Amino acid sequence: MEEEKIRILNMVKEGTITVEEATKLLEALETPAEEPEISETTKAKWLRVRITDLKTNRIKVSVNLPIGLVDWALRTGTKLASFGGVDLNGMGVNLEELRSAIHYGLKGKIIDVVDEEEQTHIEILVE
Q1: Which of 8, 69, 70, 82 has the highest count of CB atoms within 10 angstroms of its CB?
Q2: Quick check: 102 and 44 in contact, CB under 8 A?
Q3: Whole-model pTM?
Q4: What is the span of the domain harbouring residue 75?
């Protein structure tokens, strides 16, 4: 960031930009980028789990969970796992990353698995 400030000051010295323009640029460098605001209409509302029997194409399990409950479970799960000595990150599971993605508007299918041995199709969606 220091290099950018020096470059701006040199531009003023050379007469390329005015002092007012330099002030605006320097202020922009100091202002942290705001995170995009997610409107209530774009936020996910449900986590849906579907398990379908591939032989009959019938749904065996259908669970719909409100995102608020999922958020709570992810926060609690992260804390409980650390108390129990379980290293979820070591197993490739990052509950905090999943929680952030859902909080910031992730929607769509997050898991899609076909178990040939059990003849089941497992889908987890955020809508």
Answers
A1: 8
A2: yes
A3: 0.55
A4: 46-126
